Structure formats: structure tokens, C-alpha cells
Amino acid sequence: MIDCLAVALGGAIGSVLRYLIGLLPLKEQTLFPIKTFAINVLDCFIIGLIAAFSL
């Protein structure tokens, strides 16, 4: 059950961060989704930190 709660919490945090990053204005419009890329890189970094400290 704790695993399900951890996944739900991670999804909720990711969704909120994607929304907040989406509110930031960009100087240039690009075809590449730079905001989504930035939050995915940040999420990977956070997951790596959690994995490193939980071992």
C-alpha cells in the first residue's frame, strides 16, 4: 500500500511542477517543448537523489 501512495505522491508533485513551469513565460517560442524537458530533467534528478539516499 505504501508503494501506491508513493507513486500517487510522485505523480501529484510532477503534475503541479509541470503546471507551475508552464506558467513561466518564454522569450522565444520554439517547437521543442523546453518546459516539459526541464521538468523531466528535474524529476530525474530528484528521483536519483531519493534513490541514492535510500540505499
Automatic annotation (TrEMBL):
It catalyses: fluoride(in) = fluoride(out). It comes from the Bacteria. One of its GO terms (cellular component) is plasma membrane. Keywords: Cell inner membrane, Cell membrane, Ion channel, Ion transport, Membrane, Transmembrane, Transmembrane helix, Transport. It is a multi-pass membrane protein. The chain crosses the membrane at residues 34-53. Important for reducing fluoride concentration in the cell, thus reducing its toxicity. It is found in: Cell membrane. The keyword Lipid metabolism does not apply. This is Fluoride-specific ion channel. Belongs to the fluoride channel Fluc/FEX (TC 1.A.43) family. GO terms for biological process: monoatomic ion transmembrane transport.
